[in-house]
Each structure stands twice: as C-alpha cells, then as structure tokens.
Amino acid sequence: MKRSITKARYSRGKETRERILNVAVRLFGSRGFDSVSTREIADAAAVPPASLRYYFENKQGLYIACLGHIQTSTLQVIEPALQSAEMLLKDLNTNTALLIDAFCDVQAALIDYMIGRPDADTTALFMLRHDLPGDGGTSTFKGDGTIAYRMMACFVQMMMAISGNTLEPQTALIVAGLINGQPTAIQLRRHRLAEMGWDITPERLAWLKQTIRTNTTAILHAHSIIHQSTASSGTSI
Known about the structure:
By secondary structure, the chain is mainly alpha-helical. Helix content is 77%, strand content 0%. The chain contains eleven helices and no strands. Helix 4 (59-90) runs parallel beside helix 7.
C-alpha cells in the first residue's frame, strides 16, 4: 500500500513538473525571459509559486530546465534515426547512398519534431529567443548540450563522409546547417502559411518531408560528385 502511495505521488510530481515546463516554454518563448515572472508561470500552470522553487530553485533554474526539456523531447523523436546513422558511420565501407539516406532519415525525424508536433510553434519561439544575443542574456544560460552536440556531430560526420572527407569539420557543419535550414524556414513561417490557407495537416507534413528529402538528396549527391573532382585535384575546402 505504501509503495502505491509513493508511486502515485511520484507520478503527480512528474506531471506537475512537466506542466510547469510546458507553460514556461510557452511564456518565455512568446514574451522573453525578463518579461515573465515566476508568479505568472505558476498561475498559468495552476500551481503555487512554492512549487517552482521546489522543482527548479529559481527562475534561471527553470529556464535551464526548459532547455533540457526541449532536448529530451527532441531525442525521443529522433533517437531511432540517429542511432541508425551513428551505426552506419562506424562502418568505414558504408557507401554514399546509404549515408545520404541516413542523413535524410535523421532530417525527417527532426522535421517531425520541429513541425509535426502541436507545441512546435512555442518550442521554436523559445529556441529563437534563446539564440538571440540581446534577450536578457539567456543565450549565456547553458543546459546539458549532450543531445544537441550528438546530433550536430552526426550530421557533420555524415557530411564529411559523403564529401569523401574533402570538407573540413567547420565547413561540414555550415553545409549541414544550410541543408537543415529548409525545415527551419517552414517552421518560422507557419503562421504566415496558415494565413494563406496552408495549414500543416498530416498529409501536407508528409508531402513537405518528401519534398525536403528530394532537395536534400540532390544537394548531398552534388557534394559527393564535387568530392570526386576535388579529391583528384588534391584540394580541400
């Protein structure tokens, strides 16, 4: 009986913490770190202000927990595709076509997270504000970046392998970022698209993923072809 009570309390505690985080991501994203008080977050989450201190200690702790919450939820969506890509990279004999497919699979999972979820807009606003240097200094708040670095490293390694290692790591990071800018452009314009009558339904999301996959495949094939001529001339980018 005692174990059941403890388990129920843990479940309620976890649910409360998740609710606070979801509300905080929405409010921090829409208004910025400095413009939102912990009392407002507590009221919106329907919890006493003491709950925020209990779970997160202070406002900065809550913000950093929001970063971790976003990264954890990202991993839940992309983990299968990311694991498969990492396994392919361990095989030095993996051919370019498989690497391109793996790159597209990770990107497709990322699109599901960035665009396909109901709370995708609030997460996007939060991260956009976080990356801006002037928003209350929040870009200096660092959460556990393990998941982000892992995904970034995977994209860079795949990009380098596809280019036959003719790209430097920093250049590979920029190229991968440019390629992954496709879903970001859609993500940031969702409201404008909705005003035009183009809501992202499941069917449109599937079409969008296929279109971006076609574009990405063509870009990566081009880099693979470029590498052949670059490698033969003995130059690197």
